[in-house]
Amino acid sequence: MDTLLNWHKNNHEKRLFGRYIHGDSILELLEELPSQFVVTQRGVSVEKRPIHTVTIGTGKTKILLWSQMHGNESTTTKALFDLFKAFQEVDKNPFLDIILSSCTLCIIPILNPDGAKAYTRVNTNGIDLNRDAQDRSQPESKLLWEIYKEFNPHFCFNLHGQRTIYGFEDTGKPSILSFLAPSADENRSITLSRKRSMQVIAHIYNELTPYLLGNIGLYDDGFNRNCTGDTFQAEGVPTILFEAGHYPNDYDREITRRYVFMAIIAALENVSSTLPIDEALYLTIPEHQKCYCDILFKNTLDGDIGIQFKEKLTRNTIEFIPEFASKEETSFLFGHRIIDCSGIKIKKLLEEKLIGKPNIRHLNIDKGVTITL
Ligand SMILES: [Zn+2]
């Protein structure tokens, strides 16, 4: 993993950067892929944007991966293009050769290109594609199902990004990566396929913990048959949910992308080998909670005040707009940035000078005291 980490620092796909990644960003990169990659336009979105698959590898274990089914969750897409680059440099990462000879990967880099362009979770019709697994009312959901049926995978990797609100209440650490072996039924039974998903995640956890000690968590495993992962799991195909989270100060998610890249490779390493791993380790991974905000003004005379950034697409970049955090969304016990405001009344000032205004760097809070944000 150290070799991979170092390789990634210098050699990742630098043409993809930041949060706003959409179909136009990847088109040229797809066209440039050498012939070992088979790039196919498999369908179109509601607004007729192309949806591609990239197939690579010659092995018998088939893995279906899809990213950006939520259009504004782009970190995993960047990690996929880093993976494509790594596969072209197997001389520097020889064990990737083993993955390519034992697996065939079918990858959908952006499943929701309209949402990616508009920087929204949902597709153009306002549908959350990850709640459309049963109805399959949208062209994007139909296409995923069609590819799934045709490819008939042994494993599915469902690639997502999570908000900055997740962390661990007992340790105060943020949740930088999280995973889930989705349930296959309401009893959350450990079916054979679920057990296999747990083993893959246990292996990722083993491999990544040295780098992200205390920052890896699990998602809630309540069963929802409308979710894609739950549906595929219920079909008996081991499915793994990956969630790219927030690394402190990394709002571009350039550091998280590195760990997602490593997590995908660890998962591929596990599925391409027969190394036994005990799923019991999975059950020791803590579940994360909604306990973080972006900026926490602590101990003010108005109490603790949490600020949460709302992401807004403006002129081709993502602006981070401060809003008051809502207790319904996060308990904001912790903040990615903490500012002690003991004895200061600040709520009104924040309302006037900070809320709704992106790019505020300095705030004069009290008698000439200026804080840098
Ligand atoms: Zn998502």
What does this structure look like?
With 373 residues, the chain is of the alpha/beta class. The protein folds into 2 domains: 2-288, Aminopeptidase; 291-372, no CATH class. 29% of the residues lie in helices and 26% in strands. The chain has 10 helices and 16 strands. It has helices at 2-11, 23-32, 75-87, 95-102, 113-118, 139-151, 192-208, 228-234, 254-271, 347-353; strands spanning 38-44, 50-56, 61-67, 103-108, 155-161, 166-167, 177-180, 216-218, 239-244, 289-290, 292-300, 303-314, 317-324, 334-340, 362-366, 369-372. The strands form 4 sheets. The chain has an 8-stranded mixed beta sheet with strand order 1-2-4-3-5-9-7-8, sandwiched between helices. The chain starts with a helix and ends with a strand. The model has no long low-confidence stretch (mean pLDDT 95). Zinc ion (ZN) is lined by residues 70, 73, 160.
Distinctive features:
globular, 4-stranded mixed sheet, alpha/beta, binds zinc ion, 373 residues, 10 helices
Number of domains: 2
Name of the CATH homologous superfamily of the largest domain: Zn peptidases
Question: Helix and strand string, N-terminal first?
Answer: HHEEEHHEHHEEEHEHEHEEEEEHEE
Output the strand order for the largest sheet.
1-2-4-3-5-9-7-8
Based on helices, strands and strand pairing, what is the structural class? alpha/beta
Average residue pLDDT: 95
Helix count equals 10
Strand-residue fraction? 25-35%
**What Rg do the Cα atoms give?**
21 Å
Largest β sheet strand count, sense and barrel closure = 8 strands, mixed
Question: What ranges have pLDDT less than 50 throughout 5 or more consecutive residues?
Answer: none
CATH class of the largest domain: Alpha Beta
CATH topology heading of the largest domain: Aminopeptidase
Bound molecules: zinc ion
Instruction: Tell me the overall shape.
Output: globular
Distance between the termini: 35 Å
By CATH, the architecture of the largest domain is named: 3-Layer(aba) Sandwich
Number of strands: 16
Helical content (DSSP H or I, runs of 4+):
25-40%
